[in-house]
Specification:
Mean pLDDT: 90
Number of helices: 10
Order of helices and strands: HEEEHHHEEEHEHEEEHHHH
Helix content: 25-40%
Number of strands: 10
Radius of gyration: 22 Å
Length: 315
């Protein structure tokens, strides 16, 4: 059986551009400068780079990568697509060191590349966006702590663990958040903003959810973990705890350390893979296409991620 990575868009630049264009321009190319859709032509000269178009309305050139996470990168687009596939298909993630060794790029490039791909995975949940749950559906909420262990620290101070709360729709998506500390004041607005009040709400016996839990029309139930009660008929928080298991195995086993400054972007990566898993109808290829649909308008510079320089703008 042929390898998935033998597909043309993983090996050839022209095919890679065609792949990206088919996702971000499903109805044909659109000028990124003026929005023109008709008076556009693909440049085909021998010295022309793959995927370059010219808009005959504003007289400017552009490519599908302008305004995306791929902009200003010297790494070929087909190599970018390989990295995207590796990250969306690996259940616990792929480290920068692994990308560095596998793809033959510098560790610095691999680190920056992985953060840009995580940015593409990040979903925005603004006002009016769909909420988790609904009538007849169940949402589980829980919190955990992510951080280094004393046994793994040979020298220097041990970084404090960071609090993470997650909302999981049974059989559906997850949304997790880095919070400064686990209090009802911090968690109440998160739950209220991201969940449908017609849902059934499940938590453990912590009191931080009690106030918001009572507002759910579908009911609010808890399991008493302090009394070693973990399941009572269909009342449990095993789904969200299963998500935390995957998150922690990824953080400790693959990434080994995640700084507080970048924790939310890592959470977006794990949320994305969990939300678009096989159970929700996405195989690895469909998950990759979903990630590529999120590349537009999310350009990151090295400085904004935590480096020391800003890449020049180019198509």
């Amino acid at each position: 059986m042929a390898s998935v990575l033998d597909r043309p868009y993983f090996r050839d630049e022209t095919a890679a551009y065609a792949k990206v264009e088919s996702i971000i321009w499903p109805n044909g190319p659109v000028c990124v400068h003026c929005g023109e859709v008709n008076r556009i032509g693909l440049l085909k000269g021998k010295a022309t780079r793959p995927g370059v178009y010219k808009c005959y309305a504003c007289r400017k050139q552009f490519r599908a990568t302008v305004g995306t996470i791929f902009e200003s990168s010297h790494i070929p687009l087909h190599a970018w697509l390989q990295a995207v596939y590796l990250m969306v298909s690996s259940k616990k993630g792929v480290s920068s060191n692994q990308l560095h060794r596998t793809m033959g790029i510098t560790l610095k490039s691999a680190w920056f590349m992985s953060h840009r791909i995580r940015e593409a995975m990040r979903e925005t949940h603004g006002v009016g966006s769909p909420k988790l749950g609904g009538e007849g559906m169940t949402i589980e909420a829980d919190e955990t702590y992510v951080g280094g262990k004393a046994a793994n620290r040979a020298y220097g101070p041990i970084p404090p663990k960071q609090a993470v709360t997650a909302l999981v729709e049974r059989g559906g998506k997850v949304r997790s958040f880095h919070v400064p500390n686990v209090t009802s004041n911090n968690l109440y607005p998160i739950v209220a903003r991201h969940t449908h009040m017609d849902s059934r709400f499940m938590t453990d016996d912590t009191s931080v959810y009690s106030a918001i839990g009572k507002t759910f029309k579908g009911g609010y139930e808890t399991v008493n973990h302090s009394a070693k009660e973990y399941v009572r008929q269909d009342a449990y928080t095993n789904t969200v705890e299963g998500y935390f298991f995957i998150l922690k195995r990824g953080v400790y086993g693959i990434y080994q350390h995640v700084s507080e400054a970048h924790l939310q972007r890592y959470l977006a990566e794990f949320d994305f893979r969990y939300s678009y898993r096989i159970k929700t109808g996405y195989d690895d290829t469909a998950r990759m296409d979903k990630a590529l649909a999120g590349i537009v308008g999310k350009r990151l510079t090295y400085r904004s991620v935590g480096g020391a320089w800003t890449a020049p703008a180019t198509c």
